[in-house]
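USER: Note each token:
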Amino acid sequence: MNNWITGTLLATVVAGAVTEAATGKLAERELRHSIEVFRNAGDERDLGAIDSILHKDFRLFAYFGDATNAATMDKAAYTGALRAGKIGGKPRTLKIVSIDVRGSHAACRISMESAELKFDNYMHWVKTERGWQLLNDLTHAVPK
């Protein structure tokens, strides 16, 4: 009887761990896709895609070169700058440096590079009913 209980408990724990690992891998895969959508939307100035990926409370904090003060934008300012052609519109390579998923929240570090600029980004994402959405982007852009 004790072996049956022990076996059942062990099977339940293992099944839970396997399910959790699979869920974590799925979340990471979805997040990687969202990061690519973000990059592509900026490169192509795709306002529909960027609107779907930015959280309603999105904030950008951008340092350019040796600047000591950040340029800041909320979602409306960011999409407006994209629409006006002040940002984006240049293809960038993407490297995902790290991803740390904790339930419905994630922290990522990425680097991107266009013909003119190198970007290092620290991003915070939130899983919503619409999928992963970018809540905060701290970026440092350096001319090449």
